[in-house]
């Protein structure tokens, strides 16, 4: 059985390879990790090119949504991006938060951190910082962030509950997150569930949509909203490595679905803050 540490090491190794590739190469691969399909990225990733603050050389085509488009970032905000890659979402967030704001990108992979820092340095972005770390232990103090974003990353983490707890910890009261991720409706075929390579390929690490949302609720978040949802079709040239032709037909015609969702949720105000009105003298 593959342990959590082994899965993390697999992800780190795969994304170290991806960090050295360009978007075109990643677009012809299975989540950037190998030449298993020419279709995946046209389906998984959304088009960032129309968003303000977009820089093509920071876009490795690894996302499954556009969380920064929905993140309600305001000028002056502090934003944390979990799984920041080459810096794509961080730079878009920087455009929204402006010179007075701050953006912190967190990534597990040293090669990604190095690439992101180079991308920030060549542009003179002094209010964008990249830190290496595990998002189950975010290297940021408590109550620091106004907004947390993440794009197709939590599905790579074995213990998602720990990540949601950490997001709650680093957000300020009344802060919020917007996260794009891959979830399931129905059960994946057993061979896909067990395959570690597909875990790094953004599919086998996904959990049930209902469980995903329940974990967010149990952490204490409020105002949970699905901002966007789209189905993800896994092409037969990937599935044939794991399933028979009959199983592929059943998989595509059955009740199982793989979806990209973008979820918004807010950390509530503390009890004393919730009842404190301006001018009341209690603050």
Fold and architecture overview:
The model is unreliable at 25-43 and 274-283 (pLDDT under 50). Helices cover 36% and strands 22% of the residues. It has 283 residues and is of the alpha/beta class. The protein is globular and about 55 Å long. The protein has 13 helices and 8 strands. The protein has a single domain, classed as Vaccinia Virus protein VP39 (Rossmann fold). The protein has helices spanning 4-19, 23-27, 40-44, 67-70, 88-97, 110-123, 160-170, 190-194, 196-200, 209-219, 236-239, 245-253, 271-274, and strands at 78-82, 102-107, 128-132, 145-151, 171-185, 207-208, 222-232, 257-266.
Summarize the structure.
By secondary structure, the protein is of the alpha/beta class. It has 13 helices and 8 strands.
């Amino acid at each position: 059985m593959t342990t959590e540490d082994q899965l993390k090491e697999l992800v780190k190794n795969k994304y170290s390879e991806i960090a050295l590739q360009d978007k075109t190469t990643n677009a012809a691969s299975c989540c950037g990790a190998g030449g298993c399909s020419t279709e995946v990225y046209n389906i998984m990733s959304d088009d960032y090119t129309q968003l303000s603050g977009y820089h093509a050389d920071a876009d490795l085509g690894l996302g499954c949504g556009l969380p920064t488009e929905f993140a309600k970032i305001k000028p002056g905000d502090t934003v944390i991006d979990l799984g920041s890659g080459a810096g794509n979402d961080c730079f878009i967030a920087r455009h929204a938060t402006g010179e007075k704001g701050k953006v912190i990108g967190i990534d597990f992979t040293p090669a990604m951190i190095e690439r992101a820092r180079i991308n920030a340095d060549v542009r003179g972005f002094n209010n964008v910082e990249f830190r290496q770390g595990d998002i189950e232990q975010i290297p940021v103090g408590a109550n620091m962030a106004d907004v947390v974003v993440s794009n197709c990353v939590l599905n790579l983490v074995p213990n998602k509950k720990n990540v949601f707890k950490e997001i709650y910890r680093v957000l300020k009261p009344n802060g919020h997150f917007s996260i794009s991720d891959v979830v399931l409706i129905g059960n994946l075929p057993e061979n896909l569930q067990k395959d570690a390579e597909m875990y790094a390929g953004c599919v086998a690490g996904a959990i049930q949509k209902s469980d995903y949302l329940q974990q967010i609720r149990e952490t204490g978040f409020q105002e949970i909203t699905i901002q966007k949802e789209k189905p993800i079709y896994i092409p037969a040239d990937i599935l044939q490595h794991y399933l028979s032709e009959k199983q592929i037909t059943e998989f595509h015609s059955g009740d199982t679905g793989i979806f990209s969702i973008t979820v918004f949720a807010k950390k509530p105000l503390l009890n004393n803050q919730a009842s404190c009105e301006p001018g009341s003298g209690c603050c």
